[in-house]
Amino acid sequence: MEAYPRPVVVFLPWWRIMVIEAQVHQQLREFLRDCGDSSWPHHLTLARLVARALRLGRSALLQVGGLSAYQGDYRLSYLVALLLWPGPAVLVVPDETRQRLLLGDLPRLQERLGLTKPVQVGDRWPESDFTGVLITSPEAWLADRLGEANQFPISIPTLIDDVDHLETWLGTLLTATLTHADWEALGLAYPQHRDLIRDTRVALTFAAFQHPPNPYHCHLLEESDRDRLHRLYQVLTTDGRAEAMPPSWQRFWPSFAEADHLRWFVTDRQSGHITLHCTPVDLAVHREKLWEPQPVVLIGASLDHDAKADIFCQRFGLEDLTCLKFAPDRHNDVVNLYLPDHLPLPNTPQFQGRVHQEIRRLLVCANRPGPALILVNDLPLKGQLAAALAGEFGSRVQVESLDITENSILVSGWEFWHQHRHRLPAPALLIMATLPLPSLEHPLVAGRVAFHKRRRQDWFRLYLFPTAMAEIQRAIAPLRANQGLVALLDTRVHYRSYGQQILEALSPSATTRSLRPDWDLSPNSSPSPR
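User: That's the sequence. What structure does it adopt?
Assistant: Structure tokens below.
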């Protein structure tokens, strides 16, 4: 397919460009006044910042945070800027967000403001003279930038929403995977080396199952495993038949050869098969392909504790951009926060028994309408806690289930909750048994930490702590709608140097450190404010 000319050059009247920010401000203000939709106080600021980024061609990183990020109210602001911008633009959003925009926000704005700018949905640029807004998926846009498809011309201003998931999107695209079927395809492609291929596969499988089972079902490849694969590659490519390599193997070998890549296998003990994976740790190396061809506006909920987002920018290779973090609404975003300081630390033998007693007290005392959510990252603790609670509360207790009622007690890991939270009712009570710091017992976490250590970097500040901060802020966002109760049972917030930053991330909150059996947890109660 013939690629579109690169770059696309659109000549815009100077007077239209100069007044774009004022026009966006005026139109959005009138729209909000007419609709009475002013629950988020930063609509006009966000709209002007996006309009300014479009006018100057300067990239920006905007953190909206709080309840608005969870509900998506802020999207009206950037939609008005994109629709009033006289030139073409690309809007990159996940499928769920796209459906909301197409079925709700966009028709409402177009009807109320009389906007006629064309909007299309697709995985490539419509035609060279298109001057509207193209809505596409993160997978399509990122794959195009990382590859050579040239489906999206350079220089087109691009807005990417929900960039809290950027690492997941990139990880999915950049991870090379070899399955059982890929080994079979390799044997068919190189029948003269079938014995070597079979022996290599058997040796790798045997080595994988020699590792003791762990809750994560994965292990990093050891040096001997890498040597076996390297020898296989050398034999297969010495006869000059590299072009016969199946596509999955052609993708795997370059990634496997890189020094700072994570290489691991996932074991399936029922089938006796393994799956090989390889992915980069340093995502900043792709900055030239991703960010430099066009101005980009990145919008997310909780990307970095700091307003300048230095760690997030370093992680993804973002440079020379405007950064702004919107303050939460201190009236509408308040949660009730319970921070006990009498519990033992999580790394002590007494923690499990005491935390179970505390959770039971919370479930009995917090008699609020709505489900209760207990977030536990420790897999053994999650199972033991669910079993103990089920013995007392019966079928109300569910483990990572989507069949949740107003009376349910959901015991879940953080990953399950973030993946399905939009499909589940907002909890009235959220209990965090421990801080969601990635466990060093997880082989992939250990591999990432080793990557930072090799570079003599602060692996806690650059990886573990930012991950936990983002997890916490995203988890509590739904409870801000009704001033729900959040209980953090990890006493490290009181005794570690990073505790104060975590408490700041939880604000605005009404905080208490004591829980009495007769404590009134109704929405009108007022614990001591922070």
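The first strand starts at residue 60 and ends at 63.
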